[in-house]
């Protein structure tokens, strides 16, 4: 049908993204070259102390995304489907900040963390994609150091209030990016993620 990508949630009911029920979806997407964009959801179900100060969105969303990434990495999803293009919303949520902790846990407690994956999570960094919606140039620098500048696409979260108010400003303020790197982040990497035809886009006026 020519579809280039789908959006999925960070879990489905009680099933995390490493559940084997999703393997047919992952295999089909890998075979067709279709990207999957993972967005957190269902944070209001956490309840309790997260109910005040909009914390389901401010704290719950980043945590939910980090959990999804951990499940993908330690659940062996990218071992089974190394060409699968999974792009995580909001710069991968809290995962870039806890990456070292996850790696340490994998090393010191393999009995708990390495049950479904033989590859350390940090060795799979280069297979992850993320959007750039991190609200802070320093956070974008951290994300670049982990997944690589070629695996980050512009994120806007439009039209929601947590979206970027000046589209692309975080990328513009990121001093480590060259002009070419910035262009790639703002549009070029998305062309690669969704396997689009660049010349056709130009003809269409994009």
Description:
- Pathway: Secondary metabolite metabolism; quinolate metabolism.
- One of its GO terms (cellular component) is cytosol.
- Its EC number is 4.1.1.45.
- Residues 2-196 form the Amidohydrolase-related domain.
- The chain is of the alpha/beta class and 206 residues long.
- It has one domain (5-204): Metal-dependent hydrolases (TIM Barrel, Alpha-Beta Barrel).
- Helices cover 44% and strands 11% of the residues.
- Strands 1-4-5-6-7 form a five-stranded parallel sheet.
- The model has no long low-confidence stretch (mean pLDDT 92).
Secondary structure: elements and pairs:
Blueprint lengths: L4 E5 L1 E2 L2 E2 L6 H10 L2 E5 L15 H20 L2 H4 L5 E3 L6 H14 L1 H4 L14 E4 L5 H11 L4 E2 L15 H5 L5 H15 L4 H7 L2
Parallel strand pairs: 1-4, 4-5, 5-6, 6-7
Antiparallel strand pairs: 2-3
Helix pairs in contact: 2-4
């Amino acid at each position: 049908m020519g579809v280039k990508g789908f959006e999925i949630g960070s879990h489905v009911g009680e099933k995390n993204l490493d559940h084997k029920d999703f393997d047919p979806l992952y295999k089909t997407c890998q075979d067709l070259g279709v990207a999957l964009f993972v967005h957190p959801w269902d944070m209001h179900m956490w309840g309790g102390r997260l109910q005040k100060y909009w914390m389901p969105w401010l704290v719950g969303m980043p945590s939910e995304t980090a959990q999804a990434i951990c499940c993908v990495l330690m659940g062996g999803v990218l071992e089974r489907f190394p060409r699968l293009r999974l792009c995580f919303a909001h710069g991968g949520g809290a995962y870039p900040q806890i990456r070292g902790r996850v790696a340490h846990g994998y090393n010191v407690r393999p009995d708990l963390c390495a049950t479904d994956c033989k590859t350390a999570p940090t060795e799979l960094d280069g297979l992850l994609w993320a959007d750039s919606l991190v609200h802070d140039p320093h956070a974008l620098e951290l994300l670049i150091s982990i997944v690589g500048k070629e695996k980050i696409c512009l994120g806007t979260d439009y039209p929601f209030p947590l979206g970027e108010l000046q589209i692309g400003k975080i990328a513009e303020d990121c001093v480590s990016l060259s002009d070419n790197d910035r262009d790639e982040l703002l549009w070029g990497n998305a062309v690669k993620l969704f396997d689009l035809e660049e010349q056709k886009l130009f003809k269409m006026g994009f």
